[in-house]
Amino acid sequence: MVSFAFEPEHVEFAESLKAFAARELLPNYRDRAASTDFPFEAFKQLGDLGVLGIGLPEEFGGTGDDDPVLLGLATEVLAAGDVNVASAPVQIGLVGSQFLHCDRAVQERYLPSLIRGEETVAIALTEPGSGSDASALRTTATKVDGGWVLNGEKTAITWAMNASASLVYARTPGTSRSTGISCFVVPMDSTGVTAHHMLGMGCLPLGWGSIHLDDVFVPDDHLVGEEGRGFHSVMSHFDFSRAALGLLCLGAAQRSLDEAVQYAKDRETFGKPLTEYQGISFLIAEHTTLLEAARWICYRALWLRATGQPHTALASMGKWWPPLVAKDAIEAAMRIHGNLGYAAEFPLQQRYRDVTAYLIADGTSEIQKRIIAGDVFRRGTVNL
């Protein structure tokens, strides 16, 4: 029999995070979201709760075994309190998985502090001329005695303004497309590294920015994994982050819809509560259905990853559709609240702006649809 139940330990952990999100994150979400300061206090709290070490080695303070379902569940639950803080487990999961292929000394330098929530590391892949087409990046890594020299520009980089280091993807001169791309750990205080802030309509605390590299020397032991294999490595890890980010958006949307339901119960017009009007009740029913459907696409993708089965197409489904479903649900919640939904003093408008970022970030809808279609054309179906 097919089971859709979470493991008991997953449920217990999620309940503790749910209480934390309601108690610690939600009350100050709007204030944090209006600031460009990275929320290190909340980040450290996640470290104390063990959220940032999911799937990372116990010797560095992590949980040990890879558990993408637990990571997705933690992300969804935390997003009900604060969309931006909730993205931290996903980012640390991506970064940490890359550090596992580093020199031991580099692992010891960064992994423990990342898991404790004491510092951040950015992923510098996207470039001005190669947004979703990451394999077209132009940043170069030229081999020299004792290491490499990097030159280029990265843009729209999460944590660019608060990171102690970045995982920079660069290609050997003369190579093209996905071949010849390597990954390097680049301390942000290295000579030749500069960062510039990029303000968006939301996600302000995430410190999006551009990173410029001008003859930046990186020693040999800061190479991540195999030379020329950096692109393939990061792409495989995006399969879990895409589904997790879908759940992040859905967690924020579910909270918004829950608030709309309560408001509809309490608000009366023409002598009866809003729940008595089909225009409201049907709207809630429709978005509840869509959120539930989108949620299980994401969890199925993470379950497939956990069981070692192909999941790239499902992960892409979890990245393009759930953020759209979430955005629409939050918009519906805003309309149900009337003028209060649009007011800056309430969190609905903030969630709308923060969630909208994920229609673009980490791969646009169009790129995800190309991946899904390619899988269908190759295998005939995505069903297992």
Which short descriptors sum up this protein?
384 residues; four-stranded antiparallel sheet; Butyryl-CoA Dehydrogenase, subunit A, domain 3; Butyryl-Coa Dehydrogenase, subunit A, domain 1; Butyryl-CoA Dehydrogenase, subunit A, domain 2; four-stranded mixed sheet; alpha+beta; 15% strand
Count of helical segments?
13
CATH architecture term of the largest domain: Up-down Bundle
The radius of gyration computed from the alpha-carbon positions, rounded to a whole number of angstroms, is 21 Å
Q: Which blocks of ≥5 consecutive residues have pLDDT under 50? A: none
Number of beta strands = 10
CATH superfamily of the largest domain: Butyryl-CoA Dehydrogenase, subunit A, domain 3
Count the domains: 3
Largest sheet at a glance?
4 strands, mixed
The averaged pLDDT comes out at 93
Q: Helix and strand string, N-terminal first? A: HHHHHHHEEEEEEEEHEEHHHHH
End-to-end distance, in Å?
16 Å
Name the CATH class of the largest domain: Mainly Alpha
Shape: globular
How much of the sequence lies in strands comes to: 5-15%
In the sheet with the most strands, the strands line up as 1-4-5-8
